């Protein structure tokens, strides 16, 4: 049946995993347990997103690897210099680090860029700059939601506990260039689970902002 095809099952998994994670984050006694699974959750969501890609070619893989590596690189420079996002340091929640930056932050950039990119692909046909500008704004709004949760649960922390405006400006610029590259590289952008994953992530952080932050 239609609802039991790969994309249907993937959507169910996405919703269930976000609901379970949300419950775990809402229960103080289980915070540490569920935080230990955050890296695995990110990898699982990335895997589900890739598994539901319409088709695979060398350009798709090139774009995927490029955004992951670019995401890690910009974060390494950002942490080392404070010149991009401001002065911040990563905690232990996101797992293994290289140069004080969790490697999974590149996977996170991949997830959010590909989700927003796939959702917007059907709008503003052939207007890549406009889609990238709108997508970058969406990603900044996501960061606004993520920041308080990330700080509370040791994803990262800011100098003097102040999130600088510089962070959001840099997020917009970096997001624009990542999305612009996404649209410029030629591969099928269709992904049936991208919208569900984007909505699930957004609701996850909205609820946590309203309840535990």
Descriptive report:
With 213 residues, this protein is mainly α. The chain has one domain. The chain is built from 8 helices and 4 strands; from the N terminus they run H-H-H-H-E-E-E-H-H-E-H-H. It has helices at residues 6-26, 31-35, 38-51, 58-81, 104-120, 128-152, 165-184, 194-211; strands spanning 88-90, 97-98, 101-102, 156-158. The chain is globular. Keywords: Membrane, Transmembrane, Transmembrane helix. It comes from Pedobacter cryophilus. This is Carotenoid biosynthesis protein. The chain crosses the membrane at residues 12-27, 33-51, 63-89, 101-120, 132-151, 163-183, 195-212.
Global shape: globular
User: How would you write the strand order of the largest sheet?
Assistant: 1-4
Please outline the major beta sheet: 2 strands, antiparallel
Helix segment count? Answer: 8
β-strand percent reads: under 5%
Calculate the terminal CA-CA distance, rounded to whole Å: 41 Å
What is the H/E string? HHHHEEEHHEHH
Task: Tell me the Rg in angstroms.
Answer: 17 Å
Poorly predicted runs are: none
Number of beta strands = 4
Give the rounded overall mean pLDDT.
Answer: 93
């Amino acid at each position: 049946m239609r609802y039991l095809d790969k994309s249907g099952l993937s959507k169910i998994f996405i919703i269930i995993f976000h609901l379970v994670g949300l419950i775990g984050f809402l229960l103080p006694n289980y915070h540490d347990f569920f935080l230990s699974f955050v890296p695995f959750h990110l990898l699982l969501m990335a895997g589900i997103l890739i598994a539901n890609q319409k088709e695979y070619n060398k350009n798709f893989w090139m774009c995927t690897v490029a955004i992951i590596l670019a995401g890690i690189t910009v974060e390494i420079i950002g942490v080392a210099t404070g010149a991009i996002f401001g002065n911040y340091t990563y905690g232990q929640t996101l797992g293994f680090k290289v140069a004080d930056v969790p490697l999974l932050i590149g996977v996170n950039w991949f997830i959010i860029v590909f989700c927003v990119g796939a959702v917007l692909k059907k709008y503003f046909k052939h207007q890549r700059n406009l889609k990238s500008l709108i997508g970058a704004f969406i990603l900044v709004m996501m960061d606004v939601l993520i920041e308080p949760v990330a700080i509370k649960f040791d994803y990262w922390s800011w100098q003097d506990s102040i999130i600088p405006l510089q962070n959001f400006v840099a997020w917009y610029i970096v997001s624009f260039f990542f999305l612009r590259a996404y649209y410029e590289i030629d591969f099928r952008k269709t992904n049936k689970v991208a919208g569900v994953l984007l909505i699930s992530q957004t609701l996850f952080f909205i609820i946590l902002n309203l309840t535990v932050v």
